[in-house]
Amino acid sequence: MENRRYLSVLDNGFLITETKNSPKHIAGLQIYQKPINAPKNFVKNLSERWSKEDDACAPYNLKLNAQNPLSPYWTECDSFKASNHVEFLSLKKGSRGELYTLISELHEANLDRSKPMWRCVFVDGLTKDRFAIYFSFHHSVSDGVSAGKIMERSLSTDAAETGRPPFWAMKDNLYNKKSSRPKPTLMNKLIGAATGNAKTAYGLSRISTQLCLEAMGLTKNAISLPFTSAISPLTGSVTSKRSFTTASLPLDRVNHLRKITRNTLNHIALTCLDGAIHRYLDHIGNPLNATLTITMPVSLRKEDAKVGGNQIGLVTTKLSPKTDDPFIRLREIGVSLQAVRHQIDESPAASIQAYSLVTNGLSQLADTANVAGLVPPLSHTIVSNVPGPKNALYLEGAELLGWYPVSTLGPGHRLNVTMFSYNGKLDFGIIAASDFLPDLNVLGRFIYEEFEELEKVVMSPDMGTEFLAAKRLSVKS
User: Fold this and answer.
1) Structural domain boundaries enclosing 107
2) pTM of the predicted model as reported, rounded to 2 decimal places
3) Per DSSP, what are the bridge partners of residue 419?
């Protein structure tokens, strides 16, 4: 009898909601510096070696069986060939713009469900003797945190180390690790299920009560109300066309601001993003004078839980009322995130997941009925932050310079921003529906400019009073 791994409700949701215009795979873009004196065909040789590694481990050797769409499961592919998943491409000009255009096109097509749903593309020809790797996998297989951990293990902290197997052939794959907990008895399972259901019901009732109190105006900012966002170009149905760009912030400067303002990295990053998105909407001629709202995936995975599948919740929160003062923006975002943190900490993980399924299910219904642009959206965009390796990593002596997430668009959303911290940088991967959100590279530039402005305001003796006055005067003139 075949070994079956059944998908959770959340994992299956990514399959059910997938369409041609809205693929549900996520990816990573890694940019490497070739080793000194590397041969001209270094990247092609590496891709050819990887394409011969047919000894794949789960989840990369698992194929979907969805004959019963209500109870799909993974089963091992008995005809796995790495060459069906590994590709080699070469750029003509080698610019970042050409690379991002290629990544946008690669990310548009749905993954083939007749084989294990992932691909790995080597891209040679970048300027400054660099190359890139784009690796994508279906969101029903794993969340971004798990995938990053698995990919990280195929890289080395030693520049001299060579010969490590590719990520799909790692024998000590974290996806397959066994739990350190003792196997529960039948009675323990029954008690655990009853206790879990009771905690979920309590958590959902608590969240529902908070939502009612907030909607009635009896509390303020105790919880963010979904489906109250102003309609904007950021929301609505999408086509299959995508555009991709990146941004990066230096973590040493981010952490310095974090410490002196007594905030978190998320506070700083969202302050920059909030200002940048407003500037971007102004740039494309569709200003938004309302407060931006975001949906944030939060990890619900326990420390000793097996890596794999999706253990996330999706919560919405407001950012800051529109302002040109980044310090006020930072303060307002801090208040909003504190409420979100309290909501997550005080609710069982299962109830957060159940709440996420309900709200995103309603958003999906609006999108499927093609009324997403007529009703208030769940939020304006999806923003997530994935912690990554703190030290430099190497692949066959090539140094990994940047690791940028390439995520998926949620129902009713036309923009996704995912952050990934790696080796002293906070890398932003930005994906959008290009038919509605043009000039996406401008948003990446605005993120860095907003960071510089926040830095100037916080570090100046008068908290930016003169700087902001001069800025407002130049805008008026």
Assistant:
1) 5-176
2) 0.88
3) 385, 428
